[in-house]
Amino acid sequence: MGIKIGNAPFKERIQEGISNDFMRGAVSSAQGRMRTGRLTAAEELGDWEDWRVLGEEIRSHTLTNLDYYLQQLSDQVVKRGGKVFFAQTAEEANEYVQNVIKQKNAKKIVKSKSMVTEEIGLNAAIEQAGAEVIETDLGEWILQLDDHDPPSHIVTPALHKNKEQIRDTFAEKKGYDKSSKPEELAAFAREQLREDFLTADVGITGCNFAVAESGAVTLVTNEGNARLATSLPDTQISVMGMERIVPTWEDLDIVVSLLTRAAVGQKLTSYVTAITGTRLEEEVDGPEDYHLVIVDNGRSNILGTEFQSALHCIRCAACINVCPVYRHVGGHSYGSIYPGPIGAVLTPLLDGYDNHKELPYASTLCAACTEACPVRIPLHEHLIRHREIIVEKENKAPASEKLMMEGFAKWGSHPAAYKLSAKMARTALKPWTKDEKITNGPGPLKGWTDVRDFPAPSKQSFRAWFKSREKGGNK
Amino acid sequence: MKVSLFITCLCDVMASDVGKDTVEILERFGCEVDFPEAQTCCGQPAYNSGHVTKAKESMKQMIRAFQYSEYVVGPSGSCVAMLHEYAHLFKDDPEFAKPAQELANKSYEITQFLVDVLGIEDVGATFNAKVTYHRSCHMTRLLGVKDAPYRLLNNVKGLEFVELPMCEDCCGFGGTFAVKNSAISEQMVKEKSEHVTETGAEYLIGADMGCMMNIGGRLSRDGKPVEAIHITKVLNSI
């Protein structure tokens, strides 16, 4: 896979999302739960706005001094017996992992949930290297079994599926013969996955936050799969986006507190796992061999630009959970493994505008995302900046839109022209007006009247009324 | 107190009654209202679509139109929030930086002006009906005006108020979004108008005509017996 999912054009993807009733039912009920959860957890914590400011400061400080903290992290990992590889591209990262697998002659790989490995398409690379890779996060495992269905949400990847669909997938792919009760489904997955954990040669994880001062990679999970993936196999690989770093354990405390609350409304997840290098002489656990792969893949191009704060993202999905557009179209409609508002901001930055130029427009700019973000990323403002670049730098606006905006600029800067149009509007729309409304409008109005009525312009414009009133007319 | 009315292009052409009500409310509380004729549009349709250079032509016209005003008051949270944004957009412009900042400082949305500047929470209106209220996104999140409309409505006699379910969700208007992404917009406005209908209200009140035209247009299309009206209509019912 990679960051881009599917080849269908934007409008088709949207239509497919809108007509998928199962998905929409699942998404809206999940959104409801997660929204309430986040608000309750924030209220319990108290001073939520102060916490957000603190979170923003930590992320902003880290990104501004990223070179320093990456060096510190790298030094600490090496000091603790690990190997560090800086991958500039997805290919370099994949190749490094492939080489480790080949050197170890590894046949089975267990993996805990990781968005960056989705982004670089690691699973396909591992299979190419002749090994089997098993996703051990329940959601990811379901998707993997279901013919590599892509994730539709960055925290709960199988959000678009209901339990009946999951039962069918288990039955078809694994011979499951029980009910669609979540407990039975989970017990089955647990039994299947336990065997894989015990026989795996290599464990691969992502990274929620790496702690620079100690070289620890921390993982936030609810299922405990990351703990098994990082304690059983003797070879461990962690893959992280280069921005996913905090300076100290104190900082980690703040960002994890924000993450678990903003993501799922929990004070803390069931597990917060920290892996720090290899098993040293005096230690009883830890892997023999540990690799940290730090992935750039376009991130350093964002550093120092007006979009830098997009790298502050802690992948909590709060913006996705409050987004009314996501609610109706679902994650796959975005055509990126990063959906929702953060996906619409990040995807064009990482993968260019050519395949993703519609994404910044898939928002009403309602700013619910900006309000929800626990590290105060001005998401809706980034969307406007993207639009500006698409129009003014990339020159990708449709010709009809450009023409209309030319007209707008003249209209808006010439009061006489504006006044005339205000006077003429009612007459101009008269052919389409019936009973003071327009139900089948011409030109650009059509998009409007296809789904709702448009009122007839006022009989007298306001400015005409005000003028006659000043003259002592119709007060 | 001298107040210049910022009518907004939408109300000027499509809903002139909103302007009339706004003028009458302001005058009732002793404001001397003028209407700078050189005003046009705040530039938002072009700005939010990415045509920033084009938008700025209209914005400059607005800055010029209101340069001598003491207060600028408009019946739209979204358009006033746009005026506030000028300060940032023109900060490096030698000619417009200062007047843009001044315009941002002196611009208010009507309910915000009544409550925060004039200190009025009871306008003495009576409106005998069951109503619900749509809190527009730009008004609440960009301009930061959340309580003012509720406070004013609370003091309107005869009003039976029902909270709108999922009131924090966008109605799907989004300016050019409603046309450019009409398939998504339709789903959003459909859900919103269903929530409005659920309340059993006779009127949906809002402080932004964009949202009101969107939800009202959908209610009308579905033949629902709910009328979408601007809050000034209620506040001017005496």
CATH fold node name of the largest domain in chain A = Rossmann fold
CATH architecture of the largest domain in chain A: 3-Layer(aba) Sandwich
Mean pLDDT of chain B: 97
Q: Which protein chains make the most extensive interface, counting residues with beta carbons within 8 Å of the other chain's beta carbons?
A: A-B, 65 and 71 residues
Query: What is the molecular shape of chain A?
Result: elongated
Query: Residue share in helices of chain A?
Result: 40-55%
Biggest sheet statistics of chain B: 4 strands, parallel
Spatial order of the strands in the main sheet of chain B?
2-1-3-4
Beginning-to-end CA distance, first to last residue of chain B: 22 Å
CATH class of the largest domain in chain A: Alpha Beta
Roughly how many Å is the radius of gyration of chain A? 26 Å
Number of domains of chain B: 2
Summing up helix and strand content along with how strands pair, one would put the structural category of chain B as: alpha/beta
